[in-house]
Fold:
Amino acid sequence: MQRIALLLMLYAAGTYAIWADEASRRAKVEEYMRLTKIDEIYAKSTAAIGQQMQDGSFLKMMGLDTATPEQQAIGKRAMAAVQKVVEKYLSWEKLKPDYMQIFAETFSEQELDDLIAFYRTPSGRALVEKTPAMMEKTNLVVQRKMGDMQAEMRATIEALVKEATSKKN
Structure:
């Protein structure tokens, strides 16, 4: 009986230690996310995508920029509907628990401590503050490059579709 009691005590102590370790790690992940403003960065990114969907960038990517006004209106309504679905399933509130789990599994407590220490430094704060502007600039570079890529992709797809349909006949 004493063995069973001892085993139960050891199990309970081990379970508590694991729970405490997990709680500590989660608290550190929360602090890391607060310092890096990951929620704000995510919100800005999704807002930028939403803006692109509304301003016609996606219509152009899909080749609908030369469509009739009626087709463009349907495309814009489709984009708005897609955006609502994306917001429903991919909001920060929905993703945060998964991000928390991934960060907690990926980084040790020491690594989290080191990251937190870095983001509390002037250089760490500068990285957080300057990253959104840097991302905007890199996105503009990618968008410029996509113009040429889209035309080539469209031509490639059209050629493949033409080849596939000619082989059917």
The chain has seven helices and no strands. Residues 122-168 form the longest helix (47 residues). The radius of gyration is 25 Å. Residues 15-19 have pLDDT under 50 and may be disordered.
